[in-house]
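dude i think i finally got it to work??
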Amino acid sequence: MTLEDQLQIVPADAQAAFIPPPEAPAKAKAADTGPTLEEAIARSEALTEKIDALDAVLAKPLAEILAEREKADEAALAWDRFGAMWMLSQRAMRRVALDLAAQLGLSEEEVVARAMTHANAVLNGADEVDLGGTIAPAQLQHIARHRNFLRNQFRTGG
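look at this
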């Protein structure tokens, strides 16, 4: 629809009658029909579910909502701290491994290759050793639960 279709210039002549705007073309009307009945029902049901979920949250006392938020914040902080400890330990152990490898005349590539071999042995269930009690059975079970994801992380190029 052009601007001329939307604007109507009426002459200043008092004798001029109002001329209605022209009808929109049939193609434009067909495109403006909106969603089908099924689409409207599906959208209505989705919105109803969202409203019900919001109502459930808003039905709680504010103190309870804030307590849940505080618990979530505490859990997020605990996971963030755990991640920081894990990264620190990984960097420290990498440094120790590289220092010991240098004393033995091994390159960093050889150390990484050995690490990949050991990681793949654990992922494939070939290495269930608890390393003198430093690896708890729960840790091995946790690794096993995420085995497929971890395999992608330790896949060697080539």
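DSSP finds seven helices and no strands in the chain.
im so relieved honestly
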